[in-house]
User: Which sequence fits this backbone?
């Protein structure tokens, strides 16, 4: 149990912004004072005149339980005997101007179901974890040489209960884990589960940075989901949003009557696009609040990684702003120096305290060295979303095949920078909302061509260097645009052509895991070689993936015309066999390909000593390996 008093050392570390267990200090904690059980409350509100705790235990009376300030730290605390886990509470704050505010606990670890907003006293330490073997392996994991394929999930709309309600965390464990295991993904990435008031925000406007949303159950129910994932060898990544927060009056905005977590000046403190507030990363206590949140999820919930949302909006002071609408830094530039320092410290601390966890940046610009160590000027992330690859590839596939020859550079340009960062290839939720249509409906042509193109896109992604991410529904060709208000169109799996797409994803994950050439050196230039990147007239590309002396040949035909007697160069002689074909009838294709082992010809081609004539299926991708 916690002590009923706060130590000077705790307060000192918090004022420095370096208290990595601040979630055990601030907030509400069950403890004892002279053998009397109760709850210690503590909150940071440096500009408040008076602070008290109100709740269901005192009739929400602001005069019943006043808090005491701790010198100049801005922290207030009190101990209330006779209450415990399950009690509801808020903080009543009287500002310097005499205004009375009713605020939820920034460090609250559980909240009421929206629209109610009170925090719930939560006792720690009762969940019995069974994932010790997983955590031990994670600590030794060489992730840069391992397959990483992520299934991105919105918990409220993946699947509904038969009654139409959301699945609980425990029901997700029972249904989602077998599905992900069957498909062969290595990780699940969950859209933000941090508590939030608005369903339509998908969790990206967070009010409870230390609390899993109560929509799907209790904190221990979420622990059960994570524990079961680990017992089934599935990692869990949480989408996490330190770039901005909503203006809801009950939460962080003007918390003690001042711009405490945000900036006072809207040119620094307000996101014009999203109507949200920007954190003041130069304030020690704010940095500590955010880094403490990241560490809390990694420690208290055994989360395996964080996907940091909207990093570009944090890095640039002029992000989505016109001249005159932003303030330059002390050097006159547009870089947010405080945010850069925050991100570097975040990555250093997370990766040093929890080896094997992944911190991924959704960073959409050409900011240099996002995934390089802070010691050499980088930001220190493990992975960066490759937004350029995603946009170029989808733009290319939205062209009529007749005109793709004029856009061939969209396929080849990405290899110019592919190894400047540790990239993750995202086909994410952002690409299937707000009128963008579903993934399959981005493909041109009739329904057969759309399905073939989607199979080719997915095969191309698994063959291309980098980690992989696919949003739910893309694995079986969901046709309707995603909506957070309904479940996926599972009925499509009754149709063989959609079941075929699911089989393709399942086999791609299996192949990606087995073939070291497809994952072993995906972040290093020696893991990739072009065979031919110049065949724009036929819209065909061919390349090698290489690792540990093993090579896989990939050839992709981006037109609906089959290519017979198509010769490619090979890295070696011997007999070759087709190990994967996206046009297989098993996946719903036309079954055109190369079913028999093929001896290489000692005929130089494409600057290689050996070559082979192939049949390329329409809108199809094939992979070849030396026959055993």
Assistant:
């Amino acid at each position: 149990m916690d002590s009923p008093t706060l130590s000077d050392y705790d307060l000192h570390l918090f004022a420095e912004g370096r208290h990595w267990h601040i979630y055990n200090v601030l907030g509400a904690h069950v403890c004892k004072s002279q053998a009397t059980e109760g709850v210690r409350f503590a909150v940071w509100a440096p500009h408040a005149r008076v602070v008290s705790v109100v709740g269901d235990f005192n009739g929400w009376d602001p005069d019943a339980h006043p808090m005491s300030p701790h010198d100049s730290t801005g922290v207030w605390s009190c101990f209330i005997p006779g209450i415990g886990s399950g009690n509801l509470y808020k903080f009543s704050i009287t500002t310097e101007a005499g205004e009375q505010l009713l605020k939820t606990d920034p460090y609250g670890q559980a909240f009421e179901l929206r629209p109610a907003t009170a925090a719930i006293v939560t006792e720690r330490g009762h969940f019995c974890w069974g994932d010790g073997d997983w955590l031990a392996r994670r600590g030794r994991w060489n992730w840069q040489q391992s397959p990483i394929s992520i299934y991105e999930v919105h918990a409220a709309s993946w699947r509904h209960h038969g009654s139409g309600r959301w699945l609980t965390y425990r029901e997700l464990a029972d249904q989602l884990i077998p599905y992900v295991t069957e498909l062969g993904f290595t990780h699940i990435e969950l859209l933000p589960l941090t508590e939030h008031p608005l369903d339509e925000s998908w969790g990206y406007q967070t009010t409870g940075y230390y609390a899993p949303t109560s929509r799907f159950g209790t904190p221990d129910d979420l622990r059960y989901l994570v524990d079961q994932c680990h017992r089934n060898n599935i990692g869990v990544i949480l989408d996490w949003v330190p770039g901005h927060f909503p203006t809801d009056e009950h939460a962080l905005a003007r918390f003690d009557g001042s711009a405490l977590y945000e900036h006072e000046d809207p040119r620094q403190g307000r996101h014009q696009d999203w109507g949200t507030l920007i954190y003041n990363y130069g304030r020690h206590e704010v940095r500590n609040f955010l880094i403490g949140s990241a560490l809390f999820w990694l420690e208290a919930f055994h989360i395996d990684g964080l996907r940091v949302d909207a990093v570009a909006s944090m890095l640039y002071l002029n992000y989505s702003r016109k001249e005159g609408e932003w303030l330059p830094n002390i050097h006159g530039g547009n870089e947010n120096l405080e945010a850069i320092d925050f991100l570097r410290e975040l990555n250093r601390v997370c990766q040093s305290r929890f080896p094997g966890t992944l911190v991924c940046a959704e960073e959409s610009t050409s900011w240099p060295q996002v995934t390089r160590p802070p010691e050499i000027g980088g930001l220190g992330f493990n992975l960066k979303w490759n937004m350029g690859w995603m946009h170029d590839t989808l733009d290319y596939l939205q062209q009529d095949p007749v005109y793709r020859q004029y856009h061939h550079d969209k396929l080849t340009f990405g290899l110019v920078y592919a190894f400047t960062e540790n990239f993750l290839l995202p086909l994410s939720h952002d690409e299937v909302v707000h009128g963008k249509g579903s993934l399959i409906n981005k493909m041109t042509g009739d329904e057969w061509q759309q399905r073939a193109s989607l199979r080719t896109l997915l095969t191309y992604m698994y063959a291309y260097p980098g980690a992989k991410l696919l949003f739910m529904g893309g694995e079986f060709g969901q046709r309707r645009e995603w909506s957070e208000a309904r479940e996926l169109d599972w009925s499509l799996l009754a149709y063989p052509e959609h079941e075929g797409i699911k089989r393709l994803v399942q086999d791609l994950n299996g192949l990606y895991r087995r073939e070291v050439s497809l994952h072993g050196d995906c972040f290093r230039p020696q893991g990739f070689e072009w065979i031919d990147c110049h065949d724009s007239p036929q819209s065909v590309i061919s390349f090698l993936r290489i690792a540990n002396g093993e090579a896989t040949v990939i050839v992709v035909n981006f037109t609906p015309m089959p290519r017979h007697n198509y010769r490619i160069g090979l890295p070696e002689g011997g007999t070759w066999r087709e190990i994967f074909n996206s046009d297989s009838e098993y996946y719903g294709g036309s079954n055109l390909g190369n079913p028999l082992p093929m001896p290489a010809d000692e005929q130089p081609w494409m600057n290689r000593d050996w070559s082979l004539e192939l049949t390329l299926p329409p809108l199809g991708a094939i992979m070849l390996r030396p026959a055993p």
Observations:
- The longest helix spans residues 496-514.
- The domain at 8-121 is CATH 2.60.40.10 (Immunoglobulin-like).
- The mean pLDDT is 96.
- The two ends are 62 Å apart (CA to CA).
